[in-house]
Amino acid sequence: MLYVVAFLVGLLLGAGALIALLIEKQSRLRSEKNRLAEEDERLKRFRTEIERGRKTLTHEAEQVKVERREFDARVISYKELHAENLILKRDLQNIDVDLRKLQLDRELQRESQAKLDERTKELGGRYLKENVKWIGSSLTANNFAACKKRLLTVIERCRGIGFDVTPDEEATLLADLKTEFEKAVRAALEREEQARIKAQIREEQQLEKEIERELKQLEREQAAIQAALEKALAEAKDEHSEEVERLKARLADAEQRAERTKSRAEMTKSGHVYVISNIGSFGEAVLKIGMTRRLEPNDRVRELGDASVPFPFDVHMMVSSDDAPKLENSLHKALHGVRVNKVNPRKEFFKTDIETVRQLIEENHGEVDYVVDAEALEYRQSLEISDDDEEYIERVYGTLSDDDEISADDD
Fold first, then answer.
1. Where among 119, 146, 165 does a domain terminate?
2. What are phi and psi of 275, to 5 degrees?
3. Total tally of structural domains belonging to the chain
4. Is residue 309 in a domain?
5. For 225-278, where are the E strands, in sequence order?
């Protein structure tokens, strides 16, 4: 019995050991299987990388083939290099010949350019000198700006043809032009002063004649009034009458006028400063401010509008002054900036308005009567005239002109 138990115990122990061995073996087999699976996965990845590398190598091999073909296409044989070298040598020889020829041409061109520069300098200097002389001879007191512009144009033309005019030379030429202009202005002022003196003498002579004529007329008027007064006194027989008083008043008035006329003759600076306009000739807001010593100043205004302009002047102001030249000069200086003629300050036309002139006259003279709006009758009628009236007037003038010519021929 004991042996059976021992046998069973041994049998159980052997079975347990066998089971343990089987379990261990199964575990080793499982580990090996896992290892083999991992190795298989690694082999798969390796095969994938090998396949990718194979494709890359195939692509690079294709590129190498293409580059080889391109390289083979660029490869030049010795014969081709030799032939090309001969061509290059011949081309270099031709280039050397061309360079030598260009060098000779350049030297010839340099010599020709030197002669051309010398000729240009000679002609440019002559051209500049002759033009400066011509501009100087044509310079007047009224065309400085135009002559300066011509001179600058000539200088630019000289520079354009290669004749250099330095800034210092240009400044010298402009300074000489200004000097000549100042001389021309002085000469013009001297001529104008001589003309003014002659005109003043003529005007004074005419004024003397007018005064003499007026004095004679006043003397005759006084003699007539005196005779009438003596007759009236003789008829009144020392009695005062209305006719006697009236004649005495007329006689006193005539004597006063004679005295005023004599006083006027003694005052050499007295006269009238006039402000006139001519819309039809010069447009709006252009005024002429002048002076006259005439006893009847409107005669001077009528003279100005006779033949030199298409329409007569309109009088805005007629200012009597004991020193007319001073008043005129003050107005001209105050309005210098609005002169119409910027070149010749002796002209008496100004771009201004009546109100401005009125203020200046009141500052220098005193209160004055004036007319704001110009009548400009003939100008406005010329704008409004109908074609029929224009043709009729022209026909009448033409008929009268023909009659005058016939009368002149008969004479």
1. 165
2. -125, 115
3. 2
4. yes
5. 271-277
Q: Residue 46: which residues within 8 A CB-CB, separation 6 or more?
A: none
Q: Is residue 150 part of a domain?
A: yes
pLDDT in tens, the chain (411 residues): 676 777 777 777 777 777 888 888 888 888 888 888 888 888 888 888 888 888 888 888 888 888 888 877 777 777 877 888 888 888 888 888 888 888 888 888 888 877 877 887 888 888 888 988 898 888 887 778 888 889 899 889 888 888 888 889 889 988 888 888 888 877 777 777 676 667 666 766 676 677 677 767 767 776 776 676 666 666 665 555 666 666 667 767 766 666 666 565 545 567 889 999 999 888 888 999 998 877 788 888 888 887 678 889 999 989 888 888 889 889 999 998 899 988 777 788 999 999 999 899 888 887 787 777 888 888 887 888 777 667 766 766 666 555 544 344 444
DSSP-based three-state secondary structure for 369? coil
Distance set, CA 159 to CA 28, 162, 377 (Å): 111, 5, 57
Angle at 36 between CA 41 and CA 47, to 5 degrees: 30
Q: Identify the domain boundary among 165, 197, 223.
A: 165
For the question of whether the overall pTM of this predicted structure is more than 0.90, the answer is no
User: Mutual orientation of helices 78-138 and 167-236 as an angle, nearest 10°?
Assistant: 30
DSSP 230-291: HHHHHHHTT---HHHHHHHHHHHHHHHHHHHHHHHHH-SS-EEEEEEE-HHHH-TTEEEEEE
DSSP 8-state symbol, 345: T
Question: Domain range spanning residue 109?
Answer: 99-165
Please indicate, yes or no, if residue 383 is contained in any of the structural domains.
Answer: no
Q: Which long-range contacts (C-beta less than 8 Å, at least 24 apart) are formed by 334-342?
A: 334/360, 335/289, 335/360, 340/282, 340/286
* Three-state secondary structure call for residue 365: coil
Q: Is 96 exposed, middle or buried (0-12, 13-18, 19+ CB in 10 A)?
A: exposed
Strand (E) or helix (H) holding 342: none
Separation between Cα atoms, residue 235 and residue 220, nearest integer Å: 22
Torsion of CA 216, 217, 221, 222, to 10 degrees: -30
Two tokens, residue 109: 């061109």
Distance CA 90, CA 341 (A): 78
- Flag whether 349 is in a domain: yes
Q: Is 320 helix (H, G, I), strand (E, B) or coil?
A: strand
